[in-house]
Design a protein that fits this description.
Elements (H helix, E strand, L loop, with lengths): L1 H5 L14 E4 L10 E4 L2 E4 L5 E6 L2 H16 L10 H5 L5 E6 L14
Antiparallel strand pairs: 1-2, 3-4, 4-5
Length: 113
């Protein structure tokens, strides 16, 4: 899982499972049958909250798909409307990583070291 967290989903893929790939567990010589799927989705709510969600098992992946489907049904084509509550309503067996806003470092409340 640590390797998966080191390579977050593409910044272009938001509220979508598009671009889900496969990463080899090990190195280039690792046999293809030992490949491990790494699934992560960058979620963005309608109020601007961002998080990366990593489902840890098949059931969690199914719940994440359901969340994205519900968000797609609420929005126009090529959009996905997720509310903050939607992120965590059924987040069992998901690893969420909250992302700071893009302007966080310039925020007056941010005081580095």
């Amino acid at each position: 899982m640590a390797d998966a967290l080191a390579s977050p989903p593409s910044h272009r893929d938001r509220n979508s499972l598009a671009g889900v790939g496969t990463r080899l567990s090990g190195n280039e010589e690792t046999p293809r049958h030992q490949a491990q799927a790494v699934v992560g989705v960058r979620l963005i709510t309608t109020d601007g909250f961002e998080a990366i969600a990593y489902p840890t098992d098949r059931a969690a992946y199914g719940r994440l798909c359901r969340l994205l489907t519900q968000g797609n049904l609420k929005a126009d084509k090529a959009e996905c409307h997720l509310g903050f509550e939607g992120h965590f309503a059924d987040g069992r067996r998901q690893v969420f990583i909250a992302l700071p806003p893009e302007d966080f470092a310039s925020s007056p409340t941010f005081a580095p070291g």
